[in-house]
């Protein structure tokens, strides 16, 4: 029992985080950058940061994640990393021939105060960026925010560097997904295609981090949004931004820069949030919702109707990324479950009021916290004080689940000890069905395990 020393008595902490419910900013920037076709992410800092970020993404997606580093030594740490970055840009374009290099910073280069805008300008002036190739960047100081902040910053960087308004109207809609899996991005594209709507999805990590096995390694897989598509986002009729934490900064920048209005929605996780997404898309593109999508919804609702008694009144603890938690909480409330502890390590003022608004009088006394002190240690303590029937979160929740003997559903980032997340979506009605199946299996396996002999049922 690894966490057996966690005490149930909760004391307020201001200067200490124990087992954070988040990871660091550059991981998000690296993940977003991989959603551009032919992009090589570059970590401007020391080798150790880059190794950690790459290995976390590699272990989560079970795919080799390529990224370069400025490889700071003592000299760069004191005098700045301009020479390292210029050399790196030269080396990368010469040896690895990417279409785009996406630079993100680290705590070290941010503390030094390296001016990445200026260094990139110099790289262009010095002829280190070949014709038709690009270098973009975002700042990701990891002593603030989380991997979600880093993701949002890199997506905004894509708008800053690529989106342009040519004045030529395009009958297409931009969709900016918050932090979701490649499977989810593929599902959003499938839904749009089913509805006959032309979309530009950016970033798009499908066919990059869930690429099929073809017998030979492709340094730049086939997927990812292309540069011409990214440029054309400035001529689209609307942007649909899915998840405020991961997408609003990019959507707002696109509005300011190219006058493309945006609609901010939740990630389409669960029935209600997917309904809003489908109607938003249908309204924006002036198309009817096809029968096939309505049928998918019907199947998801049918599962809920058939199995409602297993969901009803079950207490749940959730932790993870805010955009996912907001949609998931709504879904669980729709299922008449009781999310009583909700924790996100990502800071942001809108999180708690939004969750409270979803819970309203259904779960009025829920513990809802976010920010640096909303960590897994606190979540464990909350569970000790008020036990739950189900825990939902990333792999790190397994220690609490084991210690408290709670059924555990893995969702979020990172998931290091299971597969499936990058292949089976949780967004849309199909994703809702997968979530329902996963939650039900966890609850019913527990019921089977605990049932006394005389009430052990074959058909439940
Ligand atoms: S928190 Fe900062 S120092 Fe640590 S791995 Fe992330 S960027 Fe590097």
Note down, in words, how this protein is organized:
Helices cover 45% and strands 13% of the residues. With 460 residues, it is of the alpha/beta class. The chain has three domains: 25-161, Rossmann fold (3-Layer(aba) Sandwich); 173-290, 3-Layer(aba) Sandwich (Rossmann fold); 292-453, 3-Layer(aba) Sandwich (Rossmann fold). The strands form three sheets. The protein has a five-stranded parallel beta sheet, sandwiched between helices. A four-stranded parallel beta sheet has the order 2-1-3-4, sandwiched between helices. A four-stranded parallel beta sheet has the order 6-5-7-8, with helices on both faces. Strand 12 (390-393), helix 16 (398-404) and strand 13 (408-410) form a beta-alpha-beta unit. The model has no long low-confidence stretch (mean pLDDT 97).
Shape: globular
What is the name of the CATH topology of the largest domain? Rossmann fold
Tell me the CATH superfamily of the largest domain: Nitrogenase molybdenum iron protein domain
Helix/strand/pairing category: alpha/beta
In terms of DSSP E residues, the strand content is 5-15%
User: How big is the Rg?
Assistant: 23 Å
End-to-end separation: 32 Å
Question: How many DSSP H or I helices?
Answer: 17
Largest sheet: 5 strands, parallel
CATH class designation of the largest domain? Alpha Beta
- What is the number of strand segments? 13
The run of helices and strands is: HEHEHHEHHEHEHEHEHEHHEHEHEHEHEH
**Cross-sheet strand order for the largest sheet:** 11-10-9-12-13
Give the mean pLDDT: 97
Uncertain runs are: none
The amount of helix comes to: 40-55%
């Amino acid at each position: 029992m690894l966490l057996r020393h966690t005490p149930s008595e909760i004391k307020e902490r201001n200067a200490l985080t124990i087992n954070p419910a988040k990871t660091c900013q550059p991981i998000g920037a690296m993940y977003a950058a991989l959603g551009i076709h032919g992009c090589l992410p570059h970590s401007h800092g020391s080798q150790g940061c880059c190794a950690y970020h790459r290995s976390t993404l590699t272990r989560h997606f079970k795919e080799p994640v390529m990224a370069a580093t400025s490889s700071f030594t003592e000299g760069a740490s004191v005098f700045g990393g301009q020479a390292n970055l210029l050399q790196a840009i030269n080396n990368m374009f010469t040896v690895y021939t990417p279409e785009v290099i996406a630079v993100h910073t680290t705590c070290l280069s941010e503390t030094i105060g390296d001016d990445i805008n200026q260094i990139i300008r110099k790289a262009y002036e010095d002829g280190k960026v070949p014709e038709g190739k690009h270098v973009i960047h975002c700042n990701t100081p990891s002593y603030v925010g989380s991997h979600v902040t880093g993701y949002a910053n890199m997506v905004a960087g894509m708008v800053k560097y690529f989106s342009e308004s040519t004045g030529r109207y395009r009958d297409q809609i931009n969709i900016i997904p918050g932090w979701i899996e490649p499977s989810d991005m593929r599902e959003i594209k499938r839904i749009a295609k089913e509805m006959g709507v032309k979309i530009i999805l950016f970033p798009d990590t499908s066919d990059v981090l869930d690429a099929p096995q073809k017998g030979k390694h492709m340094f730049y897989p086939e997927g990812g949004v292309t540069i011409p598509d990214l440029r054309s986002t400035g001529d689209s009729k609307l942007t649909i931004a899915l998840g405020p934490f991961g997408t609003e900064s990019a959507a707002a920048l696109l509005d300011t820069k190219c006058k493309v209005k945006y609609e901010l929605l939740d990630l389409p996780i669960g029935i209600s949030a997917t309904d809003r997404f489908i109607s938003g898309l249908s309204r924006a593109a002036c198309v009817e919702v096809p029968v096939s999508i309505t049928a998918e919804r019907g199947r998801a609702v049918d599962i809920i109707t058939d199995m409602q008694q297993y969901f009803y009144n079950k207490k749940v603890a959730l932790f993870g990324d805010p955009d996912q938690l907001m949609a998931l909480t709504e879904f669980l409330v729709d299922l008449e479950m009781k999310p009583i502890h909700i924790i996100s390590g990502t800071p942001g003022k809108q999180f708690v009021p939004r969750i409270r608004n979803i819970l309203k009088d259904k779960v009025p006394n829920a513990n809802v916290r976010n920010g640096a002190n909303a960590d897994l240690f606190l979540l464990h303590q909350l569970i000790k004080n008020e036990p739950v029937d189900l825990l939902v979160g990333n792999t790190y929740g397994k220690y609490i689940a084991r210690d408290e003997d709670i059924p555990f559903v893995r969702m979020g980032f990172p998931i290091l000890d299971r597969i499936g997340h990058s292949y089976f979506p949780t967004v849309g009605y199909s994703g809702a069905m997968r979530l329902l199946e996963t939650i039900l299996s966890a609850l019913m396996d527990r019921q089977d395990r605990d049932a006394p002999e005389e009430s052990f049922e074959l058909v439940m």
